[in-house]
Specification:
This protein has 213 residues and is mainly alpha-helical. The chain has one domain. It is 48% helix and 9% strand. It contains eight helices and four strands; from the N terminus they run αββααβαβαααα. The strands form two sheets. The chain has a two-stranded antiparallel ribbon with strand order 1-2. A two-stranded parallel ribbon has the order 3-4. α4 links the parallel β3 and β4. The protein starts with a helix and ends in a 5-residue tail after the last helix.
Length: 213
């Protein structure tokens, strides 16, 4: 009986989490529409190519989906320089793109992913498919929930953490998840964005491919 009640409570909280995602993303998209329109124009006018960057990421249960961001690098950056990795003062990052990355404004289009159901406001950050292929059985548990715009790893260190450290925090989040924990992370995210805590514009191969170490 107690187990049944606990499962019922969990299903209710998960349903409320989705309600929070839908309402929250819809309200934010409406409120931030003028800012997003201005960013779209700035990206288009200062760098040749589309304003929106689309990329395939791993979603719930590893299912691929298309993530949307404001483009912060030159078109074709993935085939130039460090490829999928970044270096300090990476020349492929545009002037406007550097500003967007500093304040996480490039991630605002992901609110559309949340509204669609590809992502959640809070959850593990969605990674590239080739990174998922390197996961061990335990690390694959981070795919058991929808990826998020922000998460425990983002408020506990963000890009200053190695990928293996981020995954451990993601698993800790999943293991102790509750609607209250999501709200706490959302509130902490505001402070992290404002103070630019953990922001880095470089990410080496070693930091990304340390999953098993």
């Amino acid at each position: 009986m107690l187990q049944h009640a606990s499962m019922g409570k969990m299903r209710l909280e998960l349903a409320l989490k989705r309600v929070l995602d839908v309402v929250g993303s819809a309200v934010l998209l409406a409120f931030l529409a003028p800012l997003m329109a201005m960013i779209l124009v700035l990206v288009k006018r200062t760098s040749p190519g589309p304003a929106i960057f689309c990329q395939t990421r791993a979603g719930l249960l590893g299912k691929p989906f298309t993530i949307y961001k404001f483009r912060t690098m030159v078109v074709g950056a993935g085939t130039m320089g460090a490829g999928l990795y970044m270096v300090q003062d990476d020349p492929r990052i545009t002037r406007v793109g550097r500003l967007l990355r500093t304040y996480s404004l490039d991630e605002l289009p992901e609110l559309w992913n949340v509204l669609k159901g590809d992502m959640s406001l809070v959850g593990p950050r969605p990674t590239l498919l080739y990174q998922v292929e390197m996961y061990d059985a335990t690390q694959r548990l981070r795919l058991s929930v929808r990826p998020g715009i922000t998460g425990l790893a983002q408020v506990e260190g963000r890009n200053e953490l190695r990928w293996s450290e981020r995954i451990k925090l993601d698993l800790k989040y999943i293991d102790g998840w509750s609607l209250v924990s999501d709200i706490r992370i959302l509130l902490r995210t505001v402070g992290v964005v404002v103070t630019r805590a953990g922001v880095r514009q470089d990410q080496s191969r070693e930091e990304i491919e340390d999953l098993g170490r």
